[in-house]
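Example (one chain per record):
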Amino acid sequence: MFDPELLRTFLAVERTGGFTAAGRELGLRQSTVSGHIARLEQAAGRELFRRDTRNLALTADGAAMIGFARAILDAQAQAAAYFSESTLTGLVRLGASDDVMARALPDILVEFQRTHPGVDLELTVGLSESLKSRMAAGELDLVFGKRLPGEKHGTLLWRDRLVWAGPSAAREFDDPVPFVTYPEPSLTRQRALRALKHAGRACRVTCVSDSLLGLRAAALAGLGIIVHAAGVLPDGLVPLTDPRLPELGELDFVLMQRRTRLPDPVQALADAIAADARRLSLQTTRAVL
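Predicted structure:
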């Protein structure tokens, strides 16, 4: 009854908030997106979006369609994976930085394992610089992590703004600024300390944790503030508005690989991460805005 292509377009419109944005995400013209929604509404016999010249909102039937569309597409993907009988086998050793593991990566890994059940995945979570060193030593095949703008290693997936963050946006900080941070060789630690020194601000490191969970807990407890990519901020933390805190610039999210030519299972995971990068980039952009 419902064409999966129309359902994918419907979910993209709901996710991005507009026909034009959905068209950019899907690589379709705005008129094609409008046509897909019209055909889906005709098939359902219900209006799914209430729209005028400035606003677009789901109707009650549109809200109900979200769950049906996801269930139909999930079932289709499961059937396709079952009958495709992927012949890929082997081991992929993936390194991932803490922040992408917390927000961006789990859905990719779930779908990858569903599509390639014969591939074993070994996951290491840590600091990007440490993971890069382990990959250079031959211990990892891929690293999904971060680099500073201007650095050349890895393939750029998206760029995000660095912000000072804490549980309350309006709080201001006198010297020394209480700082909660990863240990060396953290890129965000390096960028924050340099920015504070350049601004003439004193700093006191109040907590060091090698996990994002630990940094979040310390910040929520009031021990200090963190520096983090705005689009993947931990739950409960918000960007600070203190004008005395220095600007931090941006950070690149990248995919690094050990070899130019990858074994088939490793290449399949690299392709899955790269293919999902557009959605991840849109999510982080909307979070910053």
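Caption: The two ends are 37 Å apart (CA to CA).
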